[in-house]
C-alpha cells in the first residue's frame, strides 16, 4: 500500500487541530508545520507540540519567520488587540489582528516541504463562516494558491502529481467544526485560540478569537475545556 503523506499547517489552535485530525482520519501520514513568527500569543507554539504528539505526526517542524520585522498587525507589533467587540463588529471589515500576507507566506513554505517529503496534499484550517474577515481565508485565495502550486513546482511541472490544497473547514460553522473534531477524538483542552493571553497562558475571553471560540462551544452544546481569565 502506497503511503499517503500530507503537510498540515498546525498553529495549535482549534481550527488547525481539527483540520489535522481530519487529514489523519483520511489515512494521511502527517508532516506538521508550525511557525514562530513573533506572535504575541506564543503559547500556541507549545500547544502545537502537544497536539502534534497527540495526533501522532511523523514529523513536526517549527519554522522561525520573524514577521515582527514588518509589523503592521496587533499580533506582531505594539497595536492593541481589539476586545469585547460585538459579533456584528467582528464580522465587518478586516481587523488589526490580520497579519499581512501570513497565509501566503505559510503556504509557500508548506509547499516547499511538500515537495521535499514527496507529498501533493496540504491541509490548512481556514474558515470562511465564523471568522474575522481575513482575506487569506477566502475560497478565492485558496483556489488561486492551488493554481500557483501547480505551475511553480518541479514536482508538478515534471508530472509527478498535482498539488491539492485541502481546506476541510472552509464552509463549516465553528460549532460544526467542534462537533466534528470531538467525534474524531480531538482534545480541545490542548489547543489555544486567544490573541492576548496572560502570562499563565490563560485566554482573555474577550478578543475576537476567544469570542468566536466560546460561541462555537455554546452552539455545539459543549463546554470549552481551556482556562479563561474572564
Tell me the major beta sheet.
5 strands, parallel
CATH architecture, by name, is: 3-Layer(aba) Sandwich
CATH class: Alpha Beta
How many helices? The count is: 8
Order of helices and strands: EHEHEHHEHHEHH
The shape, in one word, is globular
The CATH topology assignment is Rossmann fold
Report the C-alpha radius of gyration, rounded. Answer: 17 Å
Total beta strands: 5
The fraction of residues assigned to DSSP E strands is 5-15%
In the predicted model, the low-confidence regions spanning at least 5 consecutive residues are: none
Can you give the helix content as a percent range?
25-40%
SS-based structural class?
Answer: alpha/beta
Domains counted in the coordinates: how many? 1
Mean pLDDT: 95
Relevant CATH superfamily: HUPs
Measured distance between first and last alpha carbons: 50 Å
As laid out across the biggest beta sheet, the strand order is 3-2-1-4-5
Description:
- With 230 residues, the protein is of the alpha/beta class.
- The protein has a single domain (5-219), classed as HUPs (Rossmann fold, 3-Layer(aba) Sandwich), CATH 3.40.50.
- Helices cover 35% and strands 11% of the residues.
- The chain contains eight helices and five strands, in the order βαβαβααβααβαα.
- A five-stranded parallel β-sheet has the order 3-2-1-4-5, sandwiched between helices.
- Helix 1 links the parallel strand 1 (5-9) and strand 2.
- Helix 1 crosses helix 7 (174-183) and helix 7 (174-183) crosses helix 8 (208-219).
- The longest helix is centred in the middle third of the chain and has 15 residues, at 102-116.
- The chain is globular and about 55 Å long.
- It starts with a strand and ends in an 11-residue tail after the last helix.
